[in-house]
Every structure is written in C-alpha cells, then in structure tokens.
Design a protein that fits this description.
Number of strands of chain A: 31
Structural class of chain B: mainly alpha
Helix content of chain B: 40-55%
Protein name (chain A): Serine/threonine-protein phosphatase 2A 55 kDa regulatory subunit B
Number of helices of chain A: 2
Strand content of chain A: 35-45%
Number of strands of chain B: 2
Helix content of chain A: under 10%
Structural class of chain A: mainly beta
Distance between the termini of chain A: 34 Å
Strand order of the largest sheet of chain B: 1-2
Strand order of the largest sheet of chain A: 1-2-3-4
Family (chain A): Belongs to the phosphatase 2A regulatory subunit B family.
Largest sheet of chain B: 2 strands, antiparallel
Order of helices and strands of chain B: EEHHHHHHHHH
Oligomer: heterodimer
GO molecular function (chain A): protein phosphatase regulator activity
Largest interface: A-B, 41 and 49 residues
Largest sheet of chain A: 4 strands, antiparallel
Keywords (chain A): Repeat, WD repeat
InterPro entries (chain A): PP2A_PR55 (IPR000009), PP2A_PR55_CS (IPR018067), WD40/YVTN_repeat-like_dom_sf (IPR015943), WD40_repeat_dom_sf (IPR036322), WD40_rpt (IPR001680)
Number of helices of chain B: 9
Shape of chain B: elongated
Chain lengths: 420, 249
C-alpha cells in the first residue's frame, strides 16, 4: 500500500475517496444497514480502485512529474454516476464512477461471446433483453485539464455553481469550466517580473461554499486574501486581507516558516474560515480581518524544538484541517500518529492516536497526552519520544455524522462516535 | 575536547575549566547558532532534487530565513564567510554538535560587540528564558578577553561577501525558475568552493532527506565533476562538452 496523500468524503458521506503517492484513487462505500448484518452499519468497504495519474517526464525541463495525487474533490451528484476531480502537480482529471449491474443479452448480429454471427444464420429479429449481472464499478476519465500550470498544483475547489472550479499552484490560480478542457482563465497571478524578488507563494485556495464569486487563498507569509471575481477579471487586488499581527515577544528566525498557512477551509455555513499553520489552527470571522476569533494550539510543545524540526525538514510538513458537519468541532493532525479535535463552544479538546496497537475494531480510543513539563505522568508521552515520521497530514469528517477518516502514512483509519 | 585556552566565567568564579568538562553542558553562543542555522539553510537551498522539481514554497521560506539572518548579521557587523566544518550527525534534540564548539581560534574572535539579544529566546532549545539570558551573560563575558587576540580575527570585506552571497541566492532562484541541464554547475561556478566542504557537511545533515536523486552532491566538491545517476543529465553534459570542443577548435 502506498502513502495516502489525500482523503475526501463526498457530499452525502456515503463515499470516501483516497489518493496516494502512486497515483491511485481508492473509493470506499458505506455499507447500508441491513437486518441480516446489523453490526455492519457504518463500515466502509472498497468500492472502486483506479489509476488516476501516471508518472510523466517533462522533456523540456528534464524533470519528472510525480503521479502523486495532491487533492481530490467530489462534485455534487446529479445523476446515477459519481464525479470527482483528482489532481497531481500539473494535471487535473475529471473521473466518472458508474455502476453497471445489468447487461444486454440476445443481440442479433453477434453471439453471447461477442463473435459475429453469420448473416444467413439470422432468421428472425429479436429485441435484446437486459439481464442482471454482478455489480461492476467502472471509472472512466471524462475530462483532462492539462498544461495550465507551470508550478505545482496545491489546491482545487469546486464552485457552488457546480459548473466551474479553480486550481491553484504556487504562484497562480486558474478558473476552469468543467466542460472546457482547452482553456482556463487566470484569476490570480503573484509571480514577480523578476523571480529573484519572490518572497511569497500561494499555499491553498478555496471557493466560498455559497457565494459563487468569492474565493480565498492563503500564503506562505501567513496571510489570507479574499477575492471577488465580480470586481475585476484578474483578482490581484484582494477584497479582504486577513492577517494576525505578529507577537514581537515570540519572534525568531523561524517565525515566518511556522506562520506559513498549510490549509484553508471555509465552514459549512460560510461565515467562518479556518487556517492551519505549523503550530496552531485559527478560526476567522470573514467580517473581521485584523485577527482570528479563535486560536487553538495543536502542539505548542514543539515551539522549543523548531531548530531541530527545521533541520530534519519536519517544519515544512503541511497539515490539513477540517470542520465537522455542524461547524461545532474542528480536527487536525499532528506527529506520532496523533490527531486532535477541538470543540469550539465548550473549549474541550482531545488528542487521539491512529495506530494498530490502539485501534482494535470497535474498541474505544483512549485519549493521549503529551508530557510538557519535567515530570511524566503515567501514560503520558514525552516530546522526545514522539515519532516525527508518523505524521497525520490528512483527515476528513463525514458531512453529516460523527465519522472521521484519518490517514496515517499508508493506512486509513475510520472512527465513529460511539452511539449507545 | 573543549576549546583550548578558552576561559569561561562560570557562576562559581574564574576558573579554567578545561579539565572539569564532564558534567558541564556547553551552550553555544547566539552567533554560533545563527551561523549554523545559516549554514544549514544554504545547504538546504542548494540541494536540488535533480529528477523532480524542488518544492518552491520550501525554497522560498528557506531563502527568506537566510535573508533574515543576513540582514541581522549585516546590522551586527558580524557578517563574514567562515569556512565552516560540518555539524556532524545531529540528533533530533541537539542543534549543534560539539564539532562546532570545538572550532579553532578564529571563532574566539567572533563578536567583538554584543548586540542586544532581547528578542532571542526559546528557539534554540533552552526551555526557560532564564537559561538564554544566562548564556548571554556567559558569552559576553567570555568574549571580552578574546578581543586581545585581534590578530586572529578574520573579517573579510562584508560588502563583498554580501554581494557574493546575494549573487548565489539569485542564482539559486534562477535555477529553480528554469532548470537547465547545467544549472548546478552554473550555480557553483562562481561560489567559493572551500565554503562547501560537502563530504563532512552533509553526512549528518541530510540523513533524513531524500538522497536518491541527489547526485548533485558530488558537484559540490568540484564543479567539473558531472557524475550523475541520471542518464539524461549526463548525456546533456556530454553534449555540452562536445560543443565546447567544437567551438574551441
């Protein structure tokens, strides 16, 4: 199994898609509750597996283009088939996943095994009939959106008009129509005329869930810009600029790096947005630009280890974050296969671990604690014993229920709230 | 193991502690740590993955850090290009190995003046601010007697070095922008190679990073060494070599 690079529930939560470093997409489907298997409610089983992207070689630059899937975004379901967008560093593809459970029998011109029948053997005409067959799930690429990005794509986001979507790389954001593959519109371009003057890159972008002309993008300097496509064709001028003033007492050489935003997500309501930087998660009210309304420390104990984390490159890890269906709780990952959830109203937070040892099926997860003071209590884990190779970068929350998907390197964990 | 002749004003008095090392943990001075951070950053910047494009976000962040250090060092007046040795095998919790601390006399002349370190605090793994202020007072009191060794002070022209450094930085960005086959050679052709004694510098540094495609490491020690594990790259280098011959003839 390959390293999982993205996890995403669809709009109903019945399907869960994962992308991996090898360019494959695996889709899980939730089992329906049945009388014969009452315990299987909520279980997700493999529904479809397909190779989305292949490794490519750019001959002009003598560089490999990785097949790793950076992001998957579902489209809302409009007919029996399911559609999703998957992207690697350079190319976005629209995939159609459809079921086939019937096949036609009784053709006139060919046999059951497909061989052509001799014309003189056709003595009468018959209408082919549909017979049931074993369920087959097919994935077919319907559109390929290529050659629009010079830099690495980090985000895709479907617009609420369900007809367009954006794709963002380090320096540019493009707007696409789902039906048109040979053209895209550039809506943000922060590339300086002289590349030597480059000091800031785009790290994430997302469309507003309700307003089809509004989107945000975050930067490596810890800022978020909200843009309105109605104001101008090229949204280099932002409509709103979100930045928290720096705390001068905690300034260090690593301040900028840890302020770099790795993920930005709108709340389902559209009123708030959440950003993830290296050490914290911040919730912003779209109406207030000068500071976030809530800040949650994910692993503050790492602040004194920043130099080591810089040395081993962990400081550049890009953690994602997500909202639950009601926007009451937020979740993000950490190291040592830990992930954290924060309840916004009650200010309760919990640290859990996604590992084989602690996750027997149907067992309840035990809360974890990292020891930050000198004295280590029982069951606490010291900062020095954390495994920095076990990082949880990708998590997803079911849109309606309390089911979460957590990707731990090459394993996918699904946790459900215990219902008594 | 400790620096020879270094007098350390410990809290319990002026004693030459050369012989009483065992229990004392050597806390590196701010300048040393900053220099080591600068070294580390420059190495990170110049290690490109030859087959896969380097991560632009990471490169920009490291370059900004380097600029920050450079600016501060220029303000301090301590800007210099030191011929540094490696930091050796660094475990997760140690910023600087004893190699750096065991550097020769040139480091004793470092930092004639003590800039205000009010903002320097927890980042270098001292858990309490108290430790760092104690470090500062220790360091500054150490440096006073060292000023007498001014003949050891190797202060190159700061402006010149700044210019060279800026040029290297610009070259790095140009490299990232358009990866030409000779990019790595161009990058290092004008840089003082003695600065990058790669073999020792990188063994510990890059233990965690992807080394598979990084045969650019070999070009560090000699720019004419074009060994690479990519057939494509070596073919192109051969081609250039042939073109040079043709042109010259």
């Amino acid at each position: 199994a390959d390293i999982i690079s993205t996890v995403e529930f669809n709009y109903t939560g019945d399907l869960l898609a994962t992308g991996d470093k090898g360019g494959r997409v695996v889709i899980f489907q939730r089992e329906q509750e049945t009388k014969s298997r009452p315990l299987s409610r909520g279980e997700y089983n493999v529904y479809s597996t397909f190779q989305s992207h292949e490794p490519e070689f750019d001959y002009l630059k003598s560089l490999e283009i990785e097949e790793k899937i950076n992001k998957i975004r579902w489209l809302p379901q409009q007919n029996a088939a399911h559609f999703l967008l998957s992207t690697n560093d350079k190319t976005i593809k629209l995939w159609k996943i459809s079921e086939r459970d019937k096949r036609a029998e009784g053709y006139n011109l060919k046999d059951e095994d497909g061989r052509l029948r001799e014309p003189f053997r056709v003595t009468e005409l018959r209408v082919p009939t549909l017979k049931p067959m074993d369920l087959m799930v097919e994935a077919t690429p319907r559109r390929v959106f290529a050659n629009a990005h010079t830099y690495h794509i980090n985000s895709i986001s479907v617009n609420s008009d369900y007809a367009t979507y954006l794709s963002a790389d380090d320096l540019r954001i493009n707007l696409w129509h789902l039906e048109v593959t040979n053209r895209s519109f550039n809506i943000v371009d922060i590339k300086p005329a002289n590349m030597e003057e480059l000091t800031e890159v785009i790290t994430a972008a997302e469309f507003h869930p309700n307003s089809c002309s509004t989107f945000v993008y975050s930067s490596s300097k810890g800022t978020i810009r909200l843009c309105d496509m109605r104001s101008s064709a090229l949204c280099d001028q932002h409509s709103k600029f979100f930045e928290e003033p720096e705390d001068p007492s905690s300034r260090s050489f690593f301040s900028e790096i840890i302020s770099s935003i790795s993920d930005v997500k709108f709340s389902h309501s559209g009123r708030y947005m959440m950003t993830r930087d290296y050490l914290s998660v911040k919730v912003w009210d779209l109406n207030m630009e000068n500071r976030p309304v809530e800040t949650y420390q994910v692993h503050e104990y790492l602040r004194s280890k920043l130099c080591s984390l810089y040395e081993n490159d962990c400081i550049f890890d890009k953690f994602e974050c997500c909202w639950n269906g009601t926007d009451s709780t937020i979740m993000t990952g950490s190291y040592n296969n830990f992930f954290r959830t924060f309840e916004r109203e009650t200010h309760r937070d919990i640290t859990l671990e996604a590992s084989r040892e602690s996750s027997k099926p149907r067992a309840i997860l035990k809360p974890r604690k990292v020891c930050t003071t000198g004295k280590r209590k029982k069951d606490e884990i010291t900062v020095d014993s954390l495994d920095f190779n076990k990082k949880i970068l990708h998590t997803a929350w079911h849109p309606m229920e309390n089911i979460i998907a957590v990707a731990a390197t090459n394993n996918l964990y699904l946790f459900q709230e215990k219902v008594n | 193991m400790f620096m020879r002749g270094l007098k350390r004003k410990c809290f319990d008095g002026e004693e030459d502690i050369e012989g009483t090392l065992a229990g004392i943990k050597a806390i590196p001075s701010y300048n040393l740590q900053r220099q080591s951070l600068l070294d580390m950053s420059l190495v990170k910047l110049q290690l490109c993955h030859m087959l896969v494009e380097p991560n632009l976000c990471r490169s920009v962040l490291i370059a900004n850090t380097v600029r920050q250090i450079q600016e501060e060092m220029t303000q301090d007046g301590t800007w210099q290009m030191i011929n540094t040795q490696s930091t050796g095998q660094a475990s997760l919790d140690r910023l600087v190995s004893t190699d750096i601390l065991c550097r020769s006399s040139r480091d004793q002349a470092e930092g004639k003046h003590v800039p205000a370190y009010s903002t320097f605090n927890k980042d270098f793994e001292s858990d309490q601010a108290q430790d760092s202020s104690e470090t500062m007072s220790t360091a500054s009191s150490v440096q006073a007697p060292r000023n007498l060794q001014s003949n050891v002070w190797e202060m190159e022209n700061p402006q010149e070095n700044k210019g060279n450094f800026q040029k290297s930085l610009d070259q790095i960005f140009e490299t990232l922008e358009n990866k030409s086959p000779n990019s790595v050679e161009d990058l290092f052709s004008e840089v003082d190679n003695s600065y990058y004694d790669l073999d020792t510098m990188l063994t510990g540094m890059m233990s965690n990073t992807k080394m598979g495609h990084c045969d650019s490491l070999e070009t560090f020690s000699s720019p004419t060494n074009t060994a690479s594990n990519s057939n494509c790259k070596s073919d192109l280098n051969d081609l250039d070599h042939i073109v040079e011959i043709l042109v010259e003839s």
